[in-house]
Design brief:
alpha/beta, pyruvate-formate lyase- activating enzyme, 9-stranded mixed beta sheet, 4-stranded antiparallel beta sheet, 19 helices, 20 strands, about 40% helix, globular, binds S-adenosylmethionine, binds iron/sulfur cluster
Length: about 475
């Protein structure tokens, strides 16, 4: 049984209110420049073309049929009436094709090893649309036969026809938005979907041969209790997903106005949220799952778990992944692209993105200096392996890490006293439970942009 002592619990709760980045990128996206020259993007793209780097493609489908009132994703809602009056799907597909031709034609000979469709809800597209979009990617990129091809689906809008089409196109990983199985919670967040509906999606996906069927769950939602979560976890295990993302509700009502509908009294307290996470951690680890890090769990024979053991795990915008350090090309509104030394992002809303594609580029982004690149790698290692050896890290990036991080090393001493890290002669490691639960806080110490900004930028709460 993994549990915190009363002292550790107190320490956890002391830090839980802090808002710190999740570091799916370093520097975190709010620190990028709002105006980023298109020439920098062209330069990064030609470097990738010359280097014949293998690529990962991310496609953002920005539409959903209904608003879930917790949602922090970049999406636009098309209910029945709006969809009847103005169906955006063909326009989206035309613009995606145009975006590929305008910005990424030099990359047509780079091998594509990974594809991920996210959103919004990619299965907002109908099966014919899915084929058209996939043809566009195949026509303009060299998608490899053995590529890992993943999609996020909402079971409520995904038919057998969708699943058959996806599988025929070569999709092999599928992530279902499940969130919670309790009807009371589902009603409170405007997302009602029965266990049977989820079960059918899982069974059909498995029978079609998807090699990895994954779930997204959220804790911190209104009316969740230990008892309701026990039931959600029981039902989750009964469907045996290969990976589970167990997200803490990211609550920033200043940004996501619909979250203001939540009443404080209906939300679990910080103590309850900690209990909910510890419950899930114990249930999953007792039932054949490994805690990969942050909010991710995977079955013991899953690629993520193997990568964790072999120390080849990586972390990017889509969370933890395997398969080496692939540059990402992002397509669609709000999509992020990244290379070792650049990030760039398209306009978040659909109309400005269409203008960006048709009338003239408008990126935000950042070119990473050498310090950014060092810290980016440092944080990825910390979050993926849970420990740092100063000398070998220094050798990897060509600096004397002892002196380079002298002030951060000093700051680690306070975390050692609180039991978040163990400091030893060669480096430090996160402690197995408290340190891993608060790894974002340790990471934040190494974030130069965060330290410079003070607390002006709002991130989601730690615990
Ligand atoms: C793009 S959605 C997945 C596909 C589809 N839209 C759906 O919801 O089924 C990505 C995931 O982000 C998670 N998510 C959305 N808003 C969140 C929030 N405020 N806090 C934590 N996780 C959130 C949900 O678990 C959701 O499944
Ligand atoms: S959680 Fe998924 S379905 Fe719900 S609004 Fe967000 S992106 Fe759309």
């Amino acid at each position: 049984m993994l549990a915190l002592s009363p002292e550790q619990r107190e320490i956890y709760l002391k830090y839980a209110k802090l808002s710190v980045p999740r570091h799916t990128s370093y520097p975190a996206a709010p620190f990028w420049k709002d105006e980023y020259p298109a020439e920098n993007v062209s330069k990064a793209v030609s470097e990738l073309a010359q280097g014949k780097n293998a690529l990962s493609l991310y496609v953002h489908i920005p539409y959903c049929r209904q608003l879930c009132s917790y949602c922090a994703c970049n999406k636009e809602i098309y209910g029945d009436l709006r969809l009847q009056m103005d169906d955006p799907r063909d326009r989206l597909l035309d613009n995606l094709k145009e975006e590929v031709k305008t910005f990424y034609s030099p990359l047509r000979h780079n091998p594509v090893q990974q594809i991920h469709w996210g959103g919004g809800t990619p299965t907002f597209l109908n099966p014919k649309n899915l084929e058209t979009l996939f043809e566009t990617l195949h026509k303009h990129f060299d998608v490899k036969q053995n590529a890992e091809i993943a999609i996020e689906i909402d079971p409520r809008v995904t038919t057998d026809e969708h699943l058959k089409t996806l599988r025929r196109l070569g999709f092999n990983r599928i992530s279902l938005g499940v969130q919670d199985f309790s009807e009371h919670v589902q009603k409170a967040v405007n997302r009602v979907q029965s266990y049977d509906l989820v079960r059918k999606s899982v069974e059909t996906s498995r029978s079609l041969g998807f090699s990895s069927v994954n779930f997204d769950l959220i804790y911190g939602l209104p009316f969740q209790t230990i008892r309701s979560m026990e039931e959600t976890l029981r039902l989750t295990l009964s469907l045996s997903p290969d990976r589970i993302a167990f997200y803490r509700l990211a609550m920033i009502p200043e940004m996501f106005k619909w979250q203001r509908l939540f009443k404080q009294k209906d939300l679990p307290s910080e103590e309850t949220n900690l209990e909910l996470f510890l419950l899930a951690l114990n249930v999953f680890t007792d039932n054949g799952y490994e805690f990969v890090g942050f909010d991710h769990f995977a079955k013991k024979d899953e690629a993520l778990t193997q990568a964790l053991e072999e120390k080849t795990l990586r972390r990017n915008f889509q969370g933890y992944y395997t398969g080496g350090n692939l540059p990402i090309i992002g397509l669609g509104p709000s999509a992020v692209s990244q290379t070792d030394d650049h990030y760039w992002q398209t306009p978040k809303q659909t109309r400005p993105w269409e203008k960006h594609v048709k009338e003239g580029p408008k990126f935000r982004g950042m070119e990473l200096d050498s310090d950014d690149q060092i810290r980016k790698l440092f944080l990825e290692l910390l979050y993926c392996q849970g420990s740092i050896d100063w000398t070998s890290f220094g050798d990897m990036v060509g600096v004397d890490a002892h002196s380079y991080f002298a002030s951060e090393k000093e700051a680690l001493k306070a975390f050692e006293q609180d039991g978040l890290v163990d400091i030893h002669a060669r480096g430090f490691s996160l402690t197995p439970l408290l340190g891993r639960l608060l790894s974002r806080l340790v990471g934040a110490q190494f974030d130069r942009h965060l330290r410079r900004s003070g607390s002006l930028i709002k991130f989601s709460q730690l615990g």
